[in-house]
Amino acid sequence: MYGRSLPPISVFDSEGFEAACRGAIICTVQPSQFYSVRSDPDAGWAFTRACDLGSGEACLELGDALNPTGLFGAPSTPENWRGAISAFQRACDEHQLADGCERYRRLMENRRNPETAAVLAYRETRCAEGDQPSCEIVAAAQNSTSSAAQGAPTLAPLDCAAALYLVSTDGPEHVARATAEARAAVQAHIAVHGGDQLQLENQVVAAARTRLQALQSGAQTPDAVRRDVQACRRQFGFQP
Fold first, then answer.
1. Alpha-carbon 166 to chain mean position
2. What is the domain count for the chain?
3. What are the backbone angles phi and psi of residue 37, rounded to the nearest 5°?
4. Which candidate, 95, 90, 123, places its Cα nearest to that of 109?
5. How far apart are the first and last CA of the chain?
């Protein structure tokens, strides 16, 4: 109750909204400042203490206060991502709250999540439970790491992502597979090097468009693209 009695910073008191349009993939609008337990340490202490003392609802409120996703999310800092993940996971595991499990799942599957090691561990667990998209992400990350360790000649994951995404221009029937494979290659890059997935996807789309223009102008040949696509599918363990 003490934590709830501390009012959040009103969005209308902030300096304004920061609009970030992320290329062709997504546009987001977030306030430049908004409530978080970092801006009100007393609220953070109160919710954390209540969570420690056995209140699952307090764990949820702590996670909500730190959650960097959504239109009015907290600042997207590594501390807020880690704090929200931990709070929702506690609400799920320690207090058996379905809302905590669902909010934890949404955070771990959010493409902006910078906690790459935690995300990969989560995907490994989901793969063991039979989730096929998670298995593809794990396989891509493992194949990329294995190929690099063995010194095998490979394309960089982001170069593969661009080549694989380019396949989507062959027709609507190729879009779903091309997008999934390109996204898995981006995840493989993130698993090793880190980075923001949306920004990297924008980078991949831009690289694919540049390569498409080179194809259209004759600066590159379709055979070269096909060779790269086949090599990348072998590299990441995708079906030929």
1. 21
2. 2
3. -70, -15
4. 123
5. 58
Q: What is the pLDDT of residues 195-211, one digit of tens each?
A: 888 889 899 999 999 98
Residue 98, both tokens: 């379905």
Q: Using one digit for the tens of pLDDT, what is the confidence trace for 79-131? A: 889 999 999 999 999 999 999 999 999 999 888 888 888 888 898 999 999 98
179 assigned to some structural domain: yes
**Do 7 and 105 fall within a single domain?**
yes
Is residue 114 within 8 Å of 78, Cβ to Cβ? yes
- In terms of residue numbers, what domain contains 23? 2-110
How far apart are the C-alpha atoms of 115 and 129, rounded to whole Å? Answer: 21
